[in-house]
Amino acid sequence: MADVTLPPEVQAVVDAINESDTEAFVDAFAADGKIDDWGRVLSGSDGVRSWAATDAIGQNARIDVVETSIDGDTTHIVFDWSSNRFNGRSEAYVTVAAGKVTEFRIPAH
After folding, report:
1. Which among 35, 38, 91, 95 has most CB atoms closer than 10 A?
2. Distance (Å, rounded) from C-alpha 24 to C-alpha 49?
3. Does the domain at residues 8-106 carry the CATH identifier 3.60.15.10?
4. Segment (H or E) for 75
């Protein structure tokens, strides 16, 4: 990973993906947390687990954060993603409240 510092909640998501740890990934999210992947929204623990299986951990994903900026409770990350499903540079906005991720949004490009 590039020399970036992430809030611990965001780092937990990155670590869970890179360590292929679905339980840690789901645990990083609030019970009503959601993933918005190009407008496809998956909510709650079941939705987060589903995305991990179909788009991230289940696809042998690795994430390398190269840039970050923080605005209030939202961290913008730019990252290199490699997996069996998608490879390339992407970005996400990760919102945190009460020590848990409430939204992981990958905007449509």
Report:
1. 35
2. 10
3. no
4. strand 74-82
Whether 36 has a pLDDT exceeding 60, the answer reads yes
Are the beta carbons of 65 and 77 closer than 8 angstroms? yes
Q: Are strands 62-71 and 100-106 parallel, antiparallel or unpaired?
A: unpaired
Global pTM value: 0.94
Task: Give me the residue label for tokens 């918005």.
Answer: 36
User: How far is residue 91's CA from residue 109's CA, in Å, rounded to a whole number?
Assistant: 10
- Digit-coded pLDDT (tens) for 46-104: 999 999 999 999 999 999 999 999 999 999 999 999 999 999 999 999 999 999 999 99
30: left (phi over 0), alpha (psi -120 to 50) or beta: beta
Q: Which residues of 18-44 are buried (b: 16+ CB within 10 A; e: fewer)?
A: eeebbebbbebbbeebbbbbeeeebbe
